[in-house]
């Protein structure tokens, strides 16, 4: 079972986007940094408020969202 306790959403912070622990650091920012090759150590150095578990949970959250089924109205060949 996935436990998401570090990812928050508040309409008053970043327009309700998924953020890390209520900070103005979005999950999408962290995912983009990782996807573009930035190491966990570099991210933690650049964003000193983050903890290693924050990055791990961003990745777990993204993996969870990727498990969703996609529905299409077009026939896929």
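Q: What amino acid sequence fits the structure above?
A:
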């Amino acid at each position: 079972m996935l436990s998401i306790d570090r990812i928050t959403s508040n309409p008053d912070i970043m327009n309700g986007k998924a953020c890390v622990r209520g900070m103005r650091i979005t999950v999408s920012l962290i995912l983009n940094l990782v996807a573009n090759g930035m190491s966990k150590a570099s991210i933690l150095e650049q964003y000193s408020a983050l903890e290693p578990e924050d990055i791990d949970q961003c990745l777990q959250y993204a993996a969870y969202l990727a498990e969703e089924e996609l529905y299409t109205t077009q026939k896929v060949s």
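Q: And what stands out in the fold?
A: The first strand starts at residue 7 and ends at 8.
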